[in-house]
Specification:
The complex is a heterodimer of chains A (826) and B (272). Chain A is of the alpha/beta class and 826 residues long. Chain A is built from 28 helices and 32 strands. Among the domains of chain A are: 105 residues, Helicase, Ruva Protein, domain 3; 177 residues, Rossmann fold (3-Layer(aba) Sandwich); 241 residues, 2-Layer Sandwich (Ribosomal Protein S5, domain 2). Chain B has eight helices and twelve strands. Classes of the chains: A alpha/beta (826), B alpha/beta (272).
Chain lengths: 826, 272
């Protein structure tokens, strides 16, 4: 095994090949209409939009900033352009049940036409109906009917009166009705005169009057029937007159809408209602044309004939693509508004307002999943509508019994919409896991890539995409160098020399900022230096915490050595992400070891500052120790590991190589070079595995060393598998090129420990022993020594006490009456 | 029998003077619904700067009728009930008091002095006896017809009903025409003149005379040709026109007035 050599400067950064960029500035490049590197997502979009089956709605996954919204909207608009505008929808009054307004479906543009036609109809009828009733024909016929009624009464009463008169009896009108009285000398006979009549005359007179009274009673009892007959005749005349006036006007409408049975049915109902309520038209108060409130005075009576066009595609030619930015329950499924009248809340079909589902019906609806899920009842309402394939407007206030007032139950409208939810992956997986209906309704997932291959073809397309964004944003052209730098930065963003970021939001930000700095510098073309400066400024603006940490290290507040040697002390590397800004910095890892029972104390875990991944790394290295050095005897070691001066939460296993090296150092009593920092995770076989944030970690240690002065010894040990992720800063590369800073790539922990200690790690020989003087031999010897000591202690003190050293080095006695623990048994 | 009565200070008569042209006398029998009529009469009196006087006639026949033991009153629904003289007296007195109250209110609105009289007898005789030259008499009488009127709402009320006036080529007839013109102007109604003529040409000639008599009348005026001016013809014309009052010269005899008023479907405005 030979010591690894420092990486060459070419391995530290993958430049963009200028030969791939055959232009001077982006002004020469054509716009890019397609999306690059998102074949899977676009394929899913194509499939999801194309399949017109229930439940095939889409969820577009991906972190924010990938440009999902623009891609989806552009795609949907193109698809919508191939489809005609969907139907208009109107709500009209149901004259039999006004609480259940009826929905009318009409071809695009005909809804508004029907509204206008109904307005004109009512305006026309407001003059036509009174005119019909003013007409001489109606007046004459009505008067004839009245006359007939009067004459019938007159004739009957007159005949009775004449008959009475022939018998000298008068028919008189009394305050409460009528009475017959015998006459005497043109006057009603006085009671005295009557009393003086002979008894037989009195009786005869009484009998005559009595009979006449009976006839009068009979006659009067017929009057209500005559009245009813007269009223029926008048009503029939009124209806006939109204029908003549209305029928002509409505027939014209019937002809216009003859292919729409629902509209014809509505017109029939309107006609019948007008006939039944013709007095509303006849008894209008004369209001001057220019008087304010004229419409309002008419409105209550004639509002019921209006048409509420809730979906109007009058001006549209294609299927709608609707993005609802505020997907509340009401904004999705519509709402029913109320008006305050005389202190009460009232409503009618004209106060029905459409929602996004109405507007998108027959097309596409784009929603942000997070916004949708954070709006009360919106998600449930959307699912209900998609399941039922109809939009039912339900007042949330009524549903929750928040308000108690008259409301409506509008007829549901059939729903045929493709819903596209945009959201991050976490939401998708949570919904899929916890909402059983989600999978049924959103069967198509369009998963957007965050990175694409950095192939020659993609590099050229990426340049065109940058040119497109620059033009859309009205930025100055970027020269070839600037584009190359942007492409390199796109690779750095995804920490991969072979990939490029598709995070369009971040790329567009950088384009805008580089353009700004170019303008500030008076340049009409954005150059490499502008892009570099924009990146530096981004780092500078976000780097306050990073600078404070580095300052604390330089001033010795945070103890980090960058030269010399120390036993059991290694410079590890950690990364922090704050507000989207990622940076690395070194942290001191120390280890202690002593005689014990094979326990490895992870102090971060003991104080609950370590995450599960970190603990896993420590347990792995513990097992590595056992497997390599104590295969045939118990591990009689008690060791502890700690991140010094770390007071926050630590997670990840990227320090496990450093931790293992610190332990090996303390066991082998081999000093570790403090000029090196190490990062990487280790498996049970001692192989070093890749970690994240490798560039930031290297730069974090570089900055400290640079501040203290590069001495040519300093460097960073990284996993060999991370070499392809290196896109290091220019100053780090320059230092490496000059031999003042080194990046070592290791594949095994032996390589790392050899680099750190300057001693050979050693491999087992034929005698199954490591070579004398090697680190591994020293470790094995030390553990053997612990084991023997442990055996001695075990036999001497079995059943008595065990000496335990806690994480702070305090010694304590523990009762081991149960047998002293497993360690002693070996 | 006549029992003139004034209602205290509120009924103080206007002093006779050169401006006093006429008296508006409203004559009512019992049970006539008269709110509108009283109000119209009061406004007319104000317009004509005339006195306002009401004559309420308690029908003597009704009092006697109520005293007959076997007589029953038959209600409009056909239900018979007994009559009692005292009760009849109370009803008539109650009506009189109500009319007096309504008259007072109408007069106050029109800012008029007024006078109220109660008489017992027969309405038409009492009216003829109480009226004098230059009086404008509004006769509100509930005749036998109709038993029941139809609600006007069921029939078209397209425009304001015309004021009907019977044209008679006499001084009283001209007074009647002038009074009708005053009412039409006051109430912004059209004037409809009823002329008796055997043919259109005769009617047109009469209409010329009417127009001449109308002078500077500014309202809408038209005529209706009738074969005669008998009570039945006039009643028919009033029904056809939908009139709610008919103006004509006061007939000289009670019989003639009886024949007309008992048939007419609307109140009469009589000019003497």
């Amino acid at each position: 095994m030979s010591d690894p050599k420092a990486l060459s400067v070419e391995q530290l950064y993958q430049r963009c090949d200028p030969a791939l960029l055959d232009f001077e500035t982006t002004a020469e490049l054509e716009d890019l209409s397609e999306v690059i590197g998102q074949e899977r997502a676009i394929g899913a979009l194509h499939f999801g939009v194309g399949i017109r089956k229930k439940g095939y709605n889409l969820y577009v996954l991906g972190p924010p900033g990938l440009g999902k919204h623009n891609v989806v909207k552009t795609y949907l608009q193109a698809k919508a352009g191939e489809a005609p505008a969907p139907a208009d929808w109107c709500y009209v009054n149901d004259f039999e049940d006004p609480n259940r307004p009826r929905a009318l479906r009409l071809p695009a543009g005909r809804g508004a036409a029907l509204r206008r036609d109904m307005q004109h109809l009512i305006e026309d009828l407001l003059s036509a109906i009174p005119a019909a009733f003013d007409a001489e024909e109606y007046q004459a016929r009505a008067k004839e009917i009245e006359k007939e009624f009067h004459e019938r009464q007159e004739k009957a009463l007159g005949e009775l009166q004449e008959r009475a008169k022939a018998e000298h009896i008068a028919l008189l009108r009394t305050p409460g009705g009528f009475a017959f009285a015998p006459m005497s000398d043109e006057e009603v006979m006085s009671p005295d005169a009557f009393a003086k009549l002979p008894e037989d005359e009195q009786k005869a007179l009484e009998a005559q009057v009595s009979e006449l009274q009976e006839q009068l009673q009979k006659l009067l009892s017929q009057v209500p029937q005559w009245r009813k007959e007269t009223r029926d005749k008048l009503k029939a005349l009124t209806q006939e007159t109204t029908l003549l006036a209305v029928g002509h006007e409505i027939d014209a409408l019937r002809d216009s809408y003859k292919e729409f049975p629902d509209v014809l049915s509505f017109l029939d109902a309107v006609q019948q209602d007008i006939v039944d309520n013709v007095d509303d038209f006849r008894n209008q108060e004369e209001v001057p044309e220019n008087q304010l409130g004229r419409a309002a005075m008419r409105e209550p009576a004639f509002r019921r004939y209006q048409v509420n066009v809730v979906v109007d595609h009058d001006e549209e030619r294609n299927a709608p693509v609707v993005y609802e930015n505020n997907p509340t329950h009401d904004n999705l499924v519509g709402r029913i508004e109320h008006l305050a009248q005389m202190g009460a809340l009232v409503t009618d079909f004209m106060l029905i307002k459409s929602g996004a589902l109405h507007r998108a019906n027959g097309g596409y609806l784009i929603l942000d999943a997070h916004k949708l899920l954070t709006q009360p009842y919106a998600w449930e309402a959307l699912k209900r509508a998609l399941f039922a394939e109809q939009i039912r407007i339900e007042s949330l206030g009524q549903m929750l019994s928040l308000i108690s007032t008259a409301s409506l139950e509008p007829e549901p409208i059939p729903l045929n919409v493709k819903v596209v939810l945009l959201g991050d992956r976490m939401l998708y997986y949570l919904l899929y896991e916890y909402d059983p209906e989600f999978g049924e309704l959103f069967k198509v997932a369009a998963d957007f890539e965050e990175q694409i291959d950095r192939s020659a073809e993609n590099t050229r397309l990426y340049a065109r995409m940058l040119a497109t964004v620059a033009r859309q944003e009205e930025l100055q052209p970027f020269d070839r160098g600037a584009v190359a730098r942007l492409i390199e930065h796109a690779a750095r963003r995804v920490e991969d020399t072979e990939k490029m970021s598709t995070h369009m939001s971040g790329i567009a930000d950088l384009l805008r900022e580089a353009d700004h700095w170019a303008s500030q510098a008076g340049r009409s073309t954005v150059t490499t230096s502008d892009v570099d400066y924009a990146i530096e400024q981004q780092v500078y603006r976000s780097g306050r915490i990073q600078q404070r940490l580095q300052e604390a290290i330089r001033r010795g507040t945070l103890l980090i050595d960058s030269d010399g040697e120390q036993v059991g002390q290694v410079n590890g590397l950690t990364i922090m992400e704050l507000g989207g800004f990622l940076f690395g910095h070194p942290t001191r890892i120390t280890a202690t070891a002593r005689l014990g029972e094979g326990e490895l104390v992870d102090i971060e875990r003991e104080v609950e500052l370590g995450g599960a991944s970190h603990s896993k790394g420590v347990l792995i290295l513990s097992n590595f120790l056992s497997a390599r050095y104590a295969r045939q005897r118990p591990m009689s070691l008690s060791a502890s590991l700690v991140f010094e001066q770390s007071y926050g939460y630590v997670d990840g296993d990227s320090a496990s190589v450093g931790e293992l090296c610190a332990l090996l150092s303390v066991l082998a009593e081999a000093p570790v070079r403090q000029s090196l920092a190490v990062t990487g995770s280790v498996n049970q076989h001692g192989q070093v595995q890749p970690i994240g944030g490798v560039n930031e970690k290297i730069e974090g240690f570089f900055d400290i060393c640079k501040a203290r002065g590069l001495n040519g010894e300093q460097g960073v040990i990284i996993p060999a598998t991370n070499v392809k992720h290196l896109m290091l800063r220019r100053d780090v590369r320059e230092a490496a090129e000059q031999g003042r800073f080194h990046i070592y790539a290791v594949a095994t922990v032996d390589e790392a420990v050899a680099l750190l200690t300057g001693l050979p790690a050693g491999e087992r020989g034929d005698d199954d022993r490591f070579p004398e003087g090697s680190v591994n031999r020293r470790v094995e010897d030390r553990l053997l020594q612990f084991s023997e000591l442990r055996q001695e202690f075990g036999e001497h003190d079995k059943g008595k006490v065990e000496v335990k050293i806690d994480s702070e080095g305090e010694v304590s006695d523990v009762d081991t009456s149960d047998g002293g623990g497993e360690g002693g048994d070996g | 029998m006549s029992t003139p009565r004034t209602a205290g200070a509120k009924a103080a008569m206007a002093e006779p003077g050169p401006n006093r042209r006429r008296r508006v006398l409203i004559a009512l029998d019992s049970a006539a619904r008269c709110e509108v009529l009283l109000d119209t009469a009061a406004r007319l009196a104000g317009h004509l700067r005339a006195e306002l006087e009401a004559l309420f006639v308690e029908d003597a026949d009704l009092v006697r009728l109520a005293g007959l033991p076997f007589v029953r009153e038959v209600g409009r629904q056909g239900a018979p009930r007994g009559l009692d003289p005292e009760q009849m007296q109370r009803v008539l007195a109650g009506h009189a008091a109500e009319v007096e109250r309504l008259l007072g209110e109408s007069a106050r609105r029109a800012r008029l002095q007024w006078r109220f009289q109660i008489a017992r007898g027969r309405l038409l005789q009492e009216l003829l006896a109480a009226s004098a030259e230059g009086d404008l008499v509004v006769l509100a009488r509930r005749g036998l017809q109709p038993v029941e009127a139809l609600r006007r709402a069921t029939v078209a009320v397209a425009a304001a009903a015309p004021v009907l006036v019977v044209w008679q080529d006499s001084q009283a007839g001209r007074h009647a025409l002038a009074a009708a013109a005053d009412i039409a102007e006051l109430e912004s109604r059209p004037l409809r003149v009823l002329v008796a003529a055997s043919g259109p040409s005769a009617a047109a000639r009469l209409w010329q005379a009417v127009q001449s008599a109308l002078g500077d009348f500014r309202g809408a005026a038209a005529y209706r040709q009738l074969p005669d001016l008998g009570p039945a013809t006039l009643a028919e014309a009033a029904r056809i026109e939908g009139a709610d009052r008919l103006v004509q010269a006061l007939p000289s005899s009670a019989e003639e007035l009886e024949a007309l008023s008992s048939r007419l479907p609307c109140p009469l405005v009589l000019v003497r």
